[in-house]
Amino acid sequence: MDKLLIEGPAKLKGTVEVSAAKNATLPILAATLLFEDKIHFHALPELNDVATLIKLLQSLGVKVQRNSDNVSVDATHLDHQVADYQLVKTMRASVLVLGPLLARYHQAKVSLPGGCAIGARPVDIHLKGLEEMNAKIEIENGYILAKTDQLKGAKIVLSFPSVGATENLMMAAVLAKGETIIENAAQEPEIVDLANFLIFHGIKISGAGSSRINIQGQSGHLKAKQNNYKVIGDRIEAATYIIAALMTDSHVRVEGFEPFALESVLVNLEKMGAKLKRLDHGVEVFPSGRLKGIMIETAPFPGFPTDVQAQMMALMSIAEGNSVMTEHIFENRYMHVPELTRMGAKIQLKGSTALIEGVSHLSAAPVMCTDLRASAALVLAALSAKGTSDIQRIYHLDRGYENLAMKLKNLGAKIDRVKG
Q1: Counting beta carbons within 10 angstroms of the beta carbon of residue 260, is it exposed (0 to 12), middle (13 to 18) or buried (19 or more)?
Q2: pLDDT digits (tens, 9 = 90+) for 58-116
Q3: Which of 269, 221, 274, 267 has the alpha carbon at shortest distance from 250?
Q4: What is the reported pLDDT for 94?
Q5: Which residues are catalytic?
Q6: Among candidates 43, 103, 104, which has minimal Cα distance to 76?
């Protein structure tokens, strides 16, 4: 099992290009199930989660060809509509095949999903919405069994702006009869990218990026355009490199994403004293000295993203004064706290709130990754810490960061990936 050895404190310099967004790539790949045609993609990230979803698609009968980061997906003929537990258990996003399978074949059997152990994250919002679209849902032996004579357009009001539920219902609505309206929809940029992908291939969708999305159901077979589709840049990866530059007091350009998608993070960093310049497709980070503590609460977009909470806490741990982080999205997303504490961070947990007392520096230590974003926080902490940190179980990182060690090494970090 691989691990990372990181010698700090680091000084970074240069430009880093973020990869295509994992959280946009996965639903867009699931959406290919709607089309009886071959679809081409350019620059898909080589991530474990992407590989897992491709394996799931192939298990359904989809033909996938990959040449480096160029991928073609052909779902013209599917063998069956069962998403098996052995694949779905490793990644929550696998449940996104439910909507398109049900819409196209009027039936689907999908294992209840797994993924990072950061909370229950129930799929009840997905299922309730599908039931409102004329689906019959049962849970049996750990599987979601869904059937319908024909999905029908409906006005669906989500109890919470769930990203996954919004995506699943958008895809199901594509082949439903009539118009579907999703109220209290998630507004994340990845939702917009899924809508843009479907619009690119002729589907009528409006309102993506707002709390109300309209989808006009299509009849007949869906055919795809043959042009390559390029997925948006990963805003969470971008935030990770921006925070890495600030924690090491470095000058770094982070490119390949839209700054507006990260505005809530950038504004809070500037409140802490960060010197940032928004570019057309990126952000330039300037040496900013020691930043100041701040209070932050995670919230659905356009609020502060839960996927940057752990990385921000690593920064808070060396900021001047006290900071407060409150997690509103997932109830068990503080598993990085004990590991940061091993490196000298002073953090106290009180329910969903973390109280952080900034220290002058962190110290290297052997630490263990527990989930994707917690892993990124440990890498950031190690970059700023004194000594060599041994970061184990980095397979979590491979789920969502493409070539992280190499990208950091190109910026000047002393980082090596070795066998554990």
Answers
A1: exposed
A2: 999 999 998 877 899 999 999 888 888 888 877 778 899 999 999 999 999 998 875 44
A3: 274
A4: 86
A5: 116
A6: 104
2-19+233-419 and 22-230 agree in CATH topology? yes
CATH fit for domain 2-19+233-419, picks 3.65.10.10, 3.30.70.2740, 3.30.2420.10, 2.30.30.230? 3.65.10.10
Q: For the domain made up of 22-230, give the CATH fold.
A: UDP-n-acetylglucosamine1-carboxyvinyl-transferase; Chain (3.65.10)
Quote the pTM value. Answer: 0.94
Q: What is the mean pLDDT of each run of 10 residues along the chain (420 residues)?
A: 95 98 96 93 91 94 89 91 82 89 95 55 86 95 93 96 96 97 98 97 96 94 81 97 98 98 98 98 98 97 96 98 92 86 96 96 95 94 97 93 97 93
Domain range summary for the chain, segments of one domain joined by +: 2-19+233-419, 22-230
* Phi and psi torsions of 398, nearest 5°: -65, -15
